[in-house]
Design goal:
- The complex is a heterodimer of chains A (about 240) and B (about 350).
- Chain A contains six helices and nine strands.
- With about 240 residues, chain A is α/β, with parallel strands linked by helices.
- Chain A has two domains: about 100 residues, ATPase, nucleotide binding domain (Nucleotidyltransferase, domain 5, 2-Layer Sandwich), CATH 3.30.420; about 100 residues, ATPase, nucleotide binding domain (Nucleotidyltransferase, domain 5, 2-Layer Sandwich), CATH 3.30.420.40.
- A five-stranded mixed beta sheet of chain A has the order 3-2-1-4-5, sandwiched between helices.
- Chain A starts with a strand and ends in a 30-residue tail after the last helix.
- Chain B has 13 helices and ten strands.
- Chain B has a five-stranded mixed beta sheet, with helices on both faces.
- In chain B, about 60% of the residues are buried.
- Chains A and B meet through helix 1 and helix 2 of A and helix 2, helix 3 and helix 9 of B.
- The structure holds zinc ion.
- Zinc ion binds next to helix 4 of chain B.
Chain lengths: ~240, ~350
């Protein structure tokens, strides 16, 4: 059995899939940006129990590698690595922006933009879907201020939380979470806006089984250097 | 060692050390540590994001190393203990998530424990069963506390703590003033031992005046001391004189250890306890150990200090506390266990 999860966004999402067919046997998604550490393990236990699958029946683990702004990104990665190591099974990573791109049903090239906080977005550009549903990443992942990359994303439907938060700057339509853009591509796929805010573990699981998502090592995509303030040497404590 | 006693794996990630320990009963089987201290040294303090990143990378290799050292398989483990708090939130989160991953995969109970209580429990690995009724003095870069401990599995009662800097922090800051590397403790200790004259200067003893004792009998203050050292050193430099680093280190260390031991012994007397436990990174300080031995002997108090390697943060101490909790039949933590950066000292098990 394949266990998949992603904690790179404000959501904690878990899915269990048949490792041959890719059929999803169970899943769970909770949006709570501050409680990844509390929510992930119970969600895994529940998904396994509901599907009647024992942890020893797991054959592979797939985990979203970000980029993600929350310390919670590491919750998913360390859980995947430790579980796989003691169970003696394979663990793979998938760029979380790739998962989001695959979630779009648009038969068009798309941009993915997620919330990087500090008024920035994580973003990447993708080709239109191939016959098997896979999308080639053309650019990114990168982290930037929305205004600085608006020209790169211009004309493309924008998938992900970034479209909700910075829709206007990025040129998306007023539908916010929709995949629309200033170019009006939303009209090309129907009147219903496509709402894709967070990566889905179900898509991650099936994408890994069917080979339509590119797998990597389960290593975090931080994209930013850690914040540090260099010490400026001893400060004077004598009266001036 | 009894083979019947449960095998406990302990994980510690509250600061910059990734620690994984294996303990059976009171027997230490492995104490694997990966430290990111070198990555922090150039910043003169622990950088939380750097520590969290390092914990993620070190976790699986450190678990493996602990199991190899102990000659056990992860599946032999009977329970997982992990530092649930207090500490750096992002750092704790990595350890807690790893512990849950283990508990889930091995189908074994999880115990989310208090880091400070673990500093007390670690002494069981060196000196066996804890005494019934003792004062524990925890001194490190993050804490300086006097605790009354009747039964470590039931809780601890805070008697006093620092009102400003932790003792270890004062060592770091004074080390910086003296141009010694980070973390300061070992370097100040070494400089003092290298011919330092403890009586060269008399630095202030915080919260020891009669008036302060009325309100802060068991509390500490190291901020004034740190400033006094900095002023003294700066005045010398301003006058173009050489700073006698060894003497200043010795005199500073003397002031810290004098206050710590005086108050710890007073706390024992106040409670009628005949045992003093000392833990935390500063417990590795040679002058503190020596002074505690001498003064406790004179006061009829038995002092227990684990060897330096067990005083600093490590996974063994977490496993040691886990072992006590399992033996006492405590209910394990839920899988929803939080990483609690401000976990109160009165809570031993989350
Ligand atoms: Zn500590």
């Amino acid at each position: 059995m394949l266990l998949a999860f992603d904690t790179s966004s404000a959501a904690v999402t878990v899915a269990l899939a048949d490792p041959v067919s890719g059929n999803v046997l169970g899943s769970s998604t909770t949006v709570d940006a501050l409680r990844h550490g509390e929510l992930l393990a119970p969600a895994i236990a529940e998904v396994l129990a509901t599907a009647g699958v024992g942890v020893k029946e797991l054959t592979k683990i797939a985990v979203g590698t970000g980029p993600g702004p929350f310390t919670g990104l590491r919750v998913g990665l360390v859980t995947a690595r430790t579980m796989a190591d003691v169970l003696g099974i394979e663990v793979v990573g998938v760029c979380s922006l790739d998962i989001l791109a695959k979630q779009s049903s648009l038969a068009l090239p798309v941009a993915v933009a997620t919330d990087a906080r500090r008024k920035e977005i994580y973003w990447a550009l993708y080709d239109g879907p191939a016959a098997d549903g896979s999308r080639r990443r053309l650019e990114g992942p990168a982290v930037d201020k929305p205004a600085e990359v608006a020209h790169v994303l211009a004309g493309l439907p924008v998938i992900g939380r970034g479209a909700v938060l910075y829709g206007e700057v990025l040129g998306a339509t007023a539908t916010g979470a929709s995949a629309g853009s200033a170019a009006g591509t939303i009209g090309a796929v129907g009147d219903e806006p496509e709402v894709v805010e967070y990566p889905s573990a179900e898509v991650l699981a099936t994408g890994v089984v069917t080979g339509t998502l590119q797998v990597t090592a389960p290593d975090p995509l931080y994209l930013r250097r850690p914040d540090v303030t260099m010490s400026g040497g001893p400060k004077s404590v004598l009266p001036k | 060692m009894s083979e019947n006693e449960p095998l406990i794996l302990g994980i510690e990630t509250s600061c910059d050390e990734t620690g994984v320990g294996l303990v059976r009963g009171h027997t230490l089987l492995a104490d694997a540590i990966a430290s990111s201290v070198d990555e922090h040294a150039r910043f003169g303090g622990v950088v939380p994001e750097v520590a969290s990143r390092a914990h993620l990378e070190a976790m699986v290799p450190t678990i493996r190393r602990a199991c190899e050292t102990a000659g056990v398989k992860p599946s032999d483990v009977d329970a997982i203990a992990v530092t649930s708090g207090p500490g750096l939130a992002g750092a704790l989160l990595v350890g807690v998530a790893a512990a849950k991953g283990l508990a889930l995969s091995l189908d074994k109970p999880l115990y989310g424990v208090n880091h400070l209580a673990a500093h007390v429990a670690v002494d069981t690995l060196e000196h066996g069963e804890l005494p019934k009724g003792a004062v524990a003095m925890l001194v490190s870069g993050g804490h300086s506390s006097l605790l009354a401990v009747e039964d470590i599995t039931e809780g601890v009662e805070p008697m006093g703590s620092t009102i400003d800097d932790a003792a270890g922090e004062a060592f770091d800051k004074v080390a910086r003033v003296l141009g010694l590397p980070f973390p300061g403790g070992p370097y100040v200790d070494k400089a003092a031992r290298d011919g330092g004259d403890r009586a060269y200067v008399t630095f202030p003893r915080g919260l020891t005046s009669q008036r302060d004792l009325e309100r802060h009998r068991f509390d500490f203050s190291f901020s004034g001391l740190k400033t006094a050292v900095a002023r003294w050193v700066e005045a010398k430099r301003r006058d173009g004189e050489d700073v006698p680093v060894n003497h200043v280190a010795a005199a500073f260390q003397e002031a810290v250890c004098d206050v710590l031991t005086r108050k710890a012994i007073d706390a024992c007397k106040d409670r009628g306890y005949e045992h003093l436990l000392i833990g935390g990174g500063v417990a590795a300080n040679s002058r503190l150990r020596q002074m505690a031995e001498e003064r406790c002997a004179a006061a009829g108090i038995a002092v227990r200090v684990p060897r330096p390697g067990l005083c600093t943060d490590n996974g063994a101490m977490v496993a040691a506390l886990g072992s006590e909790l399992v033996r006492a039949g405590k209910t394990p933590s839920p899988l929803g266990l939080p990483a609690d950066s401000s976990m109160p000292i009165t809570t031993v098990l989350n």
